Amino acid sequence: SSEFRNIGRSVRILSGTHEVCNSLEKQLEELEEAHMLRGQLTAAQQLALLSSYEDLAPALEGAFFVQECVFEQLEVKQGVFQEIERFVGKEVILSSSTSCLVPSSVFSKVQERSRCLVSHPVNPPYYVRLVELVPHPEAKPAVMDAAHSLMTKVGQAPVLLKKEIDGFALNRVQAAIIAESWRLVQDGVISVKDIDLVMSEGLGMRYAFIGPMETMHLNAPEGLEDYMRRYGEGITRVLNSFGPVPDFFGEPAKAIIKEMCELIPSDQQHLSGRKERRDMLLMHLSKLKTDH
């Protein structure tokens, strides 16, 4: 929503209801109140640039970049892009917000695949700035450069993958953390509450500002090469002790789910409250990162 105000172009939303615009209005007002609104326009001015359509043709008229955000179902996305291609010129960039479907699959039914990519935001994108840009194998470098420039202009933090891979970068790293966290709880090494503290009060404290590569580089007197001389064998030993991919659906999983739900019940009231807390904390962290 607000991100696109920086480049002075309107945002068009294909929607059959007013729910999307109402949600955006609330978000814009909250961002403005927190002094986190991007661009030079007020929340009201930005909201005035939003428009909602029930048909593709008027929504796509004059577009130079199309971002698809339908639910994560391959056949639906493929069909949407087939329709989109009927109404836009060959120079219009086509982008999907999918979190796990590779571009070669999403755009397999598109004729002009050289202008196609995935632009995967991180939830909630108005506080978490990262966007993964994943090229279709046929994507032109100029298309990727244009997408990177656009995302930078609207205040996001784009990262460019050099080729497509299942799960992209963020979800592959996240999957590794999830798997080992799940294993440690399942094997009786640590509780659900405490493994979350390992991240929130441990690794997450520094990873909020520097990544794993820089963390290693700074954690040895002479940098990354020195770090590997000191700790590389230990890391290899630990990695070799990892077990197979955990069973996230079988009987052992029920105990982990039960423990999590005892901490935070899975009804909408409790989940909504924790999501609001998450967004508030991310807002404060985002502001801190912006100030520094």
UniProtKB/TrEMBL annotation:
Domain of life, per lineage: Eukaryota
Pfam families: 3HCDH (PF00725), 3HCDH_N (PF02737)
Position of the signal peptide: none
InterPro entries named among the record's database cross-references: 3-OHacyl-CoA_DH_CS (IPR006180), 3-OHacyl-CoA_DH_NAD-bd (IPR006176), 3HC_DH_C (IPR006108), 6-PGluconate_DH-like_C_sf (IPR008927), 6PGD_dom2 (IPR013328), NAD(P)-bd_dom_sf (IPR036291)
Molecular function via GO: L-gulonate 3-dehydrogenase activity; NAD+ binding
One Gene Ontology term from the biological process aspect of the record: fatty acid metabolic process
Protein name as it appears in the record: Crystallin, lambda 1
Organism per entry: Cyprinodon variegatus (Sheepshead minnow)
Lineage of producing organism: Eukaryota, Metazoa, Chordata, Craniata, Vertebrata
